[in-house]
Amino acid sequence: MACGKSFVADALREYGCHVIEADEVGHQVLQPDGEAYGQVLEAFGTGVLDENGAIDRSRLAGMVFGDPVQLERLNLIVHPAVRKRALKVFEETRQRDPGGVVVYVAAILIESGAWQEMDKIIVVTCDRAQQMARAMHRPGAVETAVLARLENQMPLEKKQTFADYVIDTSGTKEDTLRQTALVYEELRRLAS
Looking at residue 108, which CATH number applies to its domain? Predict the structure, then answer.
């Protein structure tokens, strides 16, 4: 969260990578026709719905982020559905572009266990003070909510132990783009 994943993903997209966002896949599985919709309603009730019958993600987040038991309950429903749908999208993308580079952007890839299904892991990092400052500049950011989300994620130092590549966004945008270009060139080489 707030480390520069989106900035790096946009650069990789510009280089020609197929970028798939876990958040977008998560939105899809929570839609009324999505794989997790019914189970979420069963577990958390109709109070999570908006006036159109869709799951209100911010309402649902408010119910779970302060409660580790409820968060785990939600994760056990949503993560398998996201994983299954993402793997399907990866395969469809590989069939369309067999030599392409597919990048999956996921804040909790390691925590969910999905990292084991990836060929390579890129961890985007920055120092904790920058991470907090960036998160607080987002519209509607509330310090307690930001801290709760960060506490529910694995520390960046530990995530780096899973990484094949680390891109540190603590410096300038140019420095981040330089690091990203080097990683892209390596991925391009491996894919061809």
Answer: 3.40.50.300
Kindly give the interhelix angle for 37-44 and 57-64, rounded to the nearest 10 degrees.
Answer: 50
The contacts of residue 43 (CB under 8 Å, 6+ apart) are 73, 74, 77
The closest of 78, 88, 74 to 35, measured between CA atoms, is 78
pLDDT tens for 71-92 read: 999 999 999 999 999 999 999 9
Domain count, the chain: 2
Q: Residue 190: which domain range?
A: 1-17+100-192
Q: 5 with 29, same domain? A: no
Q: Can you give the pTM of this predicted structure?
A: 0.88
